[in-house]
Amino acid sequence: MKKPVTDSKKFVPALGFHRLTPLYDWVAGCAGYGLRRWYTLTMQAQLANEQRVLDLGSGTGSLAILIKQHFPGIEISALDCDPKILSLASRKAKQAQTGIHFVRAFAERLPYPDNHFDRILSSLLFHHLTQDSKRRAAAEMLRVLKPDGQVHVMDWGRAANPVMRCLFFPVQLIDGFGNTRDNVAGRLPEFFEQAGFCEVAQQQVFNTIFGTLAFYRAAKRADSGLSLLL
Ligand SMILES: C[S@@+](CC[C@H](N)C(=O)[O-])C[C@H]1O[C@@H](n2cnc3c(N)ncnc32)[C@H](O)[C@@H]1O
After folding, report:
1. Among 60, 86, 104, 206, which has the highest number of CB atoms less than 10 A from its own CB?
2. For the chain, how are helix, strand and coil distributed in percent, rounded to 5?
């Protein structure tokens, strides 16, 4: 049977294979990077009503739904390139009675104007991207973020110990050794710095049954864009 053509650009789906996508929420829950960790990311981001927030690589929409439930006044967009996972996500959001704008696009080319968001949150997207795409996504995040805005990213980071390093191999097998190499080398902050972010820092780490999860933050300089006015 012919596979449906969804887009000319390839991407790694949530669990590495399209047919596993419906199992994603269940796996995330069992693996210990589900609700509790999305909550941690939300707390780290110091969200407030009236902000404009982007969930980048939103998957089944769990993080965006959690945010909207806690901060109904937030205007939230959830972006993912996979139409199949987006339809799961919008069904979940409807059931949860939350108003979320789901957008199908690639992180490397965001369909938003400059200086648009107060916060960008991203959970487990970056290890799906090639090194070039990681750099492009970081540059796009900087572009669409408002001056003084912040990015908060949760993704696989440098393994806390040899056991965590071994536990990470299955993730590398599924999502690709090339895509995950920079994560496990702890290089994500480098890409944010090179894109032009300031105050780049790893905030905390958690060990899970699939390896070490790292939480990063980065900010856009408050005076970004001033040079154009002067
Ligand atoms: C592991 S899932 C994470 C989903 C969700 N953020 C979470 O924490 O459960 C990674 C998601 O990134 C999406 N993705 C992969 N490459 C992408 C790209 N280049 N642009 C946008 N989304 C992408 C996949 O479709 C998938 O839904």
Report:
1. 60
2. 40, 25, 35
